[in-house]
C-alpha cells in the first residue's frame, strides 16, 4: 500500500473559533469523500469546536504545538492529553517559527515527539535549513541532525505513525520555492536518514511532505515529485476556496 497524499493547513495565529467553523463549513462540501488526507492545524482555542463540527467530514483536526511535559506547573502551556481530549489527532512539532522565535531545540522537540506518540497524537515533525545553511552547503547535515535527534529512541512500531515535513526556512512565506531537483534530493536524503534509524521498510511507510510557499499553481508539480507525499501549507490555507483548490490538485495526482 502507498503512503497516500496529505494536504495539511497550518493556520498559524489566525482565526477565532467562530471563523474556524465558518471555514470548515465552506471547505467541507468542496472536498467531500476526498482521497487526499486533509489535515487542519488550528489554534488551540479552535480545536474543540472545530473537531466537533468536522466529525461528519473527512477532515482531521490538530494543533500547531504542545508542551513537552506530561502535566504540571507550566503556566501557559498545553499538554498533549488535553489536545487529545479536545479532539486533536495530530500536532505540528518543530516548525521553524517555534525554533527561531521561541527557542525550541532539537532535544525539546524530541521530548515532544515522544510525548505525542505516548498520547496517541500523530506528530508531524518539521525540519529545514536556513538560507545561510544552504549557501554553506550544509543542508543535509542540518536536516540529518534535526531528524536524528528528534526521532531517537522511538520504537520501530511507532515510527510508521510519524509524518515528516521538509520546510526550507527561506521558502516559508517568501514566495521562493526550491527547484524540483532540490526538493527531490532533500526528500530522498530524508528517506535515507529514516532508513538508517528505522530500517528501509519502515522508512518507506513514513510520509514526507514539502512546505514553503505552496499555492494552487505549484502544488501539482511538487507533489508529483518522487518521495513527496503531500504539502504543508501556511498562507494559502487561510482561504477555504484557495485551500480547496490545493486539495483538488492533490486529488488529481495518481496514488503513490
Ligand atoms: P507558507 O508557510 O505556505 O506561508 O510558506 C508554510 C508553513 O509555515 O508551514
Report what the structure shows.
It is a single chain. Helix content is 43%, strand content 14%. It is α/β, with parallel strands linked by helices and 256 residues long. An 8-stranded parallel barrel has the order 1-2-3-4-5-6-7-8, surrounded by 5 helices. Helix 1 runs parallel beside helix 2 (44-53) and helix 5 (106-118) crosses helix 7. The longest helix has 19 residues, at 180-198. The N and C termini lie close together (9 Å). It binds 2-phosphoglycolic acid. 2-phosphoglycolic acid (PGA) binds at residues 10, 167, 172-173, 211-214, 232-236.
- Rough outline: globular
> Number of DSSP helices?
12
Structural class: alpha/beta
Number of strands: 8
* Radius of gyration from CA coordinates: 17 Å
Summarize the amount of helix as a percent range: 40-55%
Beta-strand fraction estimate: 5-15%
Strands of the largest sheet, in order across it?
1-2-3-4-5-6-7-8
Q: Report the mean per-residue pLDDT as an integer.
A: 96
Query: For the terminal residues, how far apart are their CA atoms?
Result: 9 Å
User: For the report, how would you describe the main beta sheet?
Assistant: 8 strands, parallel, barrel
Say which molecules are bound, naming each kind only once. Answer: 2-phosphoglycolic acid
The helix/strand order is EHEHEHEHHEHHHEHHEHEH
Describe the structure in brief.
With 256 residues, the chain is an alpha/beta fold.
Amino acid at each position: 500500500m502507498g503512503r497516500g497524499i496529505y494536504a495539511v493547513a497550518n493556520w498559524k495565529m489566525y482565526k477565532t473559533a467562530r471563523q474556524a467553523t465558518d471555514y470548515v463549513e465552506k471547505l467541507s462540501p468542496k472536498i467531500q469523500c476526498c482521497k487526499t488526507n486533509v489535515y487542519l492545524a488550528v489554534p488551540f482555542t479552535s480545536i474543540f469546536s472545530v473537531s466537533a463540527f468536522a466529525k461528519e467530514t473527512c477532515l482531521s483536526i490538530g494543533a500547531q504545538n504542545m508542551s513537552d511535559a506530561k502535566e504540571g506547573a507550566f503556566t501557559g502551556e498545553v499538554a498533549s492529553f488535553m489536545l487529545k481530549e479536545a479532539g486533536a489527532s495530530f500536532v505540528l512539532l518543530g516548525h521553524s517559527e517555534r525554533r527561531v522565535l521561541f527557542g525550541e531545540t532539537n532535544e525539546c522537540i524530541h521530548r515532544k515527539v515522544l510525548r505525542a506518540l505516548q498520547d496517541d497524537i500523530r506528530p508531524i515533525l518539521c525540519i529545514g535549513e536556513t538560507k545561510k545553511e544552504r549557501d554553506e552547503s550544509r543542508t543535509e547535515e542540518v536536516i540529518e541532525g534535526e531528524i536524528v535527534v528528534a526521532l531517537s529512541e522511538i520504537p520501530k512500531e511507532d515510527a510508521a505513525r510519524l509524518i515528516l515535513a521538509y520546510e526550507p526556512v527561506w521558502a516559508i512565506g517568501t514566495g521562493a520555492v526550491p527547484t524540483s531537483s532540490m526538493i527531490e534530493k532533500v526528500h530522498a536524503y530524508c528517506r535515507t536518514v529514516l532508513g538508517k534509524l528505522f530500517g528501509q521498510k519502515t522508512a518507506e511507510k513514513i510520509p514526507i511532505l514539502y512546505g514553503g510557499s505552496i499555492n494552487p499553481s505549484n502544488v501539482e508539480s511538487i507533489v508529483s515529485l518522487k518521495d513527496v507525499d503531500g504539502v504543508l501549507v501556511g498562507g494559502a490555507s487561510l482561504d477555504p476556496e484557495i485551500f480547496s483548490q490545493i486539495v483538488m490538485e492533490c486529488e488529481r495526482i495518481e496514488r503513490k
